[in-house]
Write a structure and sequence with these properties.
eight-stranded mixed sheet, elongated, 21 helices, alpha/beta, Glycerol-3-phosphate (1)-acyltransferase, single chain, 19% strand, 36% helix, Aminopeptidase
Amino acid sequence: MHQQISILNLVERPSALTKFGVWLMDKVMGVAKMNSLYHQHKMCGLSKEAFSDKLFELLALELEGIAELQNRIPKDGPVVIASNHPFGGIEGVVLARAIGEVRPDIKVLANKGLGIFSELTDFFIFTNPLSANDPKNAPSLRQCIAHVKNGNSLLIFPAGRVSHFDHEDGRLVEHDWNKIVGKLAGIADSAYLPVFVSGKNSDWFYRIEKVYFKLRMFLLGRELLNKQGNKIQIAAGLPVPQKLLKTGNNDAKADLCRALSYAQDASWHYEWPEDAIVENKPLADPINRQTIQDEIDALPNEQHLVSFKSYDVYYGYQSQIPMIVTEIARLRELVFREHNEGSGEPIDTDNFDATYTHLFIVNRNDGQIIGAYRMGQTDILQEKYGREGLYLNKMFNFKDNFINQRGPCVELGRSFLVPEYQGSFHGLFLLWRGLSTFVCKYPRYRTFYGTVSISKLYDPRSVSLIEEVLIDKNADIDVVPHNKFEFDLHPELKKYCRQEDRTQQLSAFLKSIETDGKDIPVLAKQYQKMGARFHALGIDKSFNHTPGLMLSVDFPNAPDKLLKLYAGEGWREYKAYKAE
């Protein structure tokens, strides 16, 4: 007897009446037509790989994103791969075939309905998503857990049901994901790979579900056959380590996994504006080290802020240290070019260099400047020039109630560390130690504010997520960007992020998106530790359309351990200071 494709393959010891009912269902659901094609094209007995390829050939499917998916699959070790479920069948075969080329150990937790294809059964661990009480489900789930714990790869469609059409929002959406994906993704040493498959079934399929959603099951066979010539686009994130998924219980982890899948949706797309064609001119020559030392020696003693190991931190004004400011501007240009933010000029400078305060670190051993901050003393600047005297007034509209209008602040900007000190503890520590010592000298300054530059080397999706997650939802609108970031967050991600604070989950999103492993900008993390409040995100059109995240730090209310670390012995006196 020849092998048949039939629902009968799913029935144990069928009666004559059952066989007749199944024959009728095969006709109605399009399974009989599949069986005809199965024999016509001699698919019986093919390997699961050859069967899949023949199926794709018959349907003339246009598959996009396979190479990217395969490049992102860990080559070994336990990995859980989860996807949305837009079609109800064919995506499982497509993904299993693609993943299997990289990970021959792949198993797919799938609807037992796919058991009608006996050639594919080796891919699958079967479950019954429509019956939570099916006694066969528990052993299947235990098998999945064991499979991952043994260092293998597993593909799962955690919604358990085909995506449905949300008529109110006018888009296709997933059902809630089963908490089992949270349990699986939480297995020690495993990685989680989010996948999003773009596409939809026929309009008739979604009309039927309005009548009664279970009727859709009768159309899945026909929906598979009507994919003739369709394009199926697959978008995969990068693997997220298990440690970044530690977020509450398994239900919370499942919600995060679902959101990570939506973060890969290829329809959620934005291209940064093309950079102005700027030919980088050669950097200016370094300023002679002796000239730098002569200007340092001429500074008043009180402008020496910190000595630490072989480093000294100073502050000064362009009128005092013109050549040092030129060297700072040269180094800024050097560093900013690395992040696609350079001016293209020999040095990075503007008119504000003449009015702002320059804090800088010098390596005493070789006289090299290794980093700097540009600080605006807002009371002095606004008394002379009004709000136009503030650099960030170009990016943001400061309303009368914003902190820099209510009292003296320090506006921070143009910070950098030379490449060999980026990521080092000493560089960032000394910038903050110098800044803290400065405000201890002038304790009327209680608040820092400024922007963290978010390089356009970040994917726009990451910037959109950073904006949504970090900006205080309860913040007033006392500061408004002149140029907003015109890229709305994906509706499903917006919904996820607004349910509660998602700061702890932000790194997981960036890990799945950023191909070079970038996380939240280091400086933003530092400000977070200080208790920063994030106000707005604006685009600096004069700085190569670079996004800037506006924040403020109420420094006296920063954690005491950090005040002590940065401000040293004077931290208690500074904290207790009361303006007259």
